[in-house]
Amino acid sequence: MLDLLARLFGKESTSSKDIARERLRLVLVHDRSVASPEFINALKEDLIKVIQQYMDIDMEGLLVSIEGEDNSVALVANIPIKGLKRAAGD
Amino acid sequence: MKSRVLVITSGKGGVGKTTTTANLGTALAMQGKKVVMLDTDIGLRNLDVVMGLENRIVFDIVDVVNGNCKIKQALIRDKRFEGLCLLPAAQTKDKSAVTPHQMKNLTNELRKDFDFILVDCPAGIEQGFKNAISGADDAIVVATPEVSSVRDADRIIGLLEAAGLSNSKLIINRLRNKMVKRGDMMDIEDILDILSIDLLGVVPEDETIVVSTNRGEPAVLENSSRAGEAYRRVARRLLGEEVPINAQEDTSNLVDRFKKMLKLAR
Ligand SMILES: Nc1ncnc2c1ncn2[C@@H]1O[C@H](COP(=O)(O)OP(=O)(O)OP(=O)(O)O)[C@@H](O)[C@H]1O
Ligand SMILES: [Mg+2]
Q1: What architecture is domain B4-265?
Q2: What is the pLDDT of residues B93-106, one digit of tens each?
């Protein structure tokens, strides 16, 4: 009965279409980033620019990727630090 | 009227490219347009049987691009409409039997005689896909309301854009209203949200598609076919008419119809 009510009010959280939509959203974030290496490269370059203002980083060892977990997608960046810069004004 | 080369594509197989090509081609011919349908699914010829023209094939698309015959000799005239023709795929060769360059020349040649050149694309993103899109002005992407199909459509839209076809339109095929209503199928909005391309039409899941394919008579010829009606609307939309997208509710039910009116009035 509760189930029926939930359905009537459109609150059925496990309706299979919602699951489908959510899975699609996640898989496409990943697909689209992989399909477009230029996107990741542009992001990488901008990241470097910003981070270099604060620290010396190892550009060779820098890794940026988009990875899917169970129900989320994460931007994963591994950026080895060589040293910190002094705070401005020091 | 300037002729248009439209490729019907999907990425995923079996979602209704050939069905769409046959029905759209026929519907445009019903509107008095000169239409040629190209089957580029080399090795897996299908459009001829869907159109009921399989017994008339002498030459095919590979014969044409290799210069074994003239285009006119290979074109099969439809039995029902004078302005409607089919150029069948070869059955014995593979997808590498045609090059993108040859396809481009072929479609350009056909522009001289036809208003619409509809290219039925094979499934996949390999050589056959590259051939099929190489002469096209625009693409029609067919997808069903399923995760795998929409995902592949997204990939295809990206590849089309990379190839300079950035004005693709979407046909959602096999929509089941009952399932949408009970929350077990993605609806039109869900799909458009995800793919962010323009909608060209919505075709319901419909048994008349199977019956018409059995007979070799496209569903648009059947007045009472709901899928046929959807394709007739797509054709009118392609010709610039403003036809509302009708999600093809089951209007046989009076209560439903009334509910719909109320919804519209809101
Ligand atoms: N709206 C519909 N309602 C019911 N059946 C449909 C509908 N659209 C397509 N079908 C059926 O689905 C099957 C696949 O359709 P079709 O051959 O047009 O797909 P396709 O994308 O061309 O496939 P392929 O990738 O193999 O070329 C056919 O059996 C067809 O009759
Ligand atoms: Mg096909």
Answers
A1: 3-Layer(aba) Sandwich (3.40)
A2: 888 899 999 999 99
Spatial separation of the C-alpha atoms in residues B158 and A39, rounded to whole Å: 13
Domain boundaries, chain B: 4-265
Which positions of chain B have pLDDT values less than 50? Answer: 249-252, 266
Whether the CA torsion A10, A14, A17, A19 is positive or negative: it is positive
Please tell me the distance in Å from A55's CA to the nearest CA on chain B.
37
Contact flag B185-A24 (C-beta cutoff 8 Å):
no
B17 is in an annotated binding site: yes
User: Which residue has a Cα nearest atom 8 of ligand 1?
Assistant: B16
Q: pTM to 2 decimals?
A: 0.85
Cα(B112) to centroid(ligand 1), Å: 31
Place of tokens 């445009």: B28
Query: For position B256, what pLDDT does the model report?
Result: 55
Give yes or no for a contact between B8 and B15, defined as CB atoms under 8 angstroms apart: no
Q: Strand pairing of B138-143 and B4-9? A: parallel
Residues with CB under 6 A from ligand 1: B 10, 13-19, 41, 46, 123, 173-174, 203, 205-206, 209-210, 213, 227
Q: How far apart are CA B2 and CA B13, in angstroms?
A: 31
Q: Show the tokens assigned to B30.
A: 């019903």
Extract the tokens encoding B264.
């519209």
Chain A contacts of B146, Cβ < 8 Å? 20
B192 touches chain A (CB under 8 A): no
CB contact under 8 A, B151 and A24: yes
User: Is-contact B41 B129, C-beta < 8 A?
Assistant: no
The pLDDT of residue B26: 98
Using CA atoms of B229, B233, B238, B239 in order, give the dihedral in degrees to the nearest 10.
110
B16 annotated binding-site participant: yes
Q: What is the pLDDT of residue B70?
A: 97
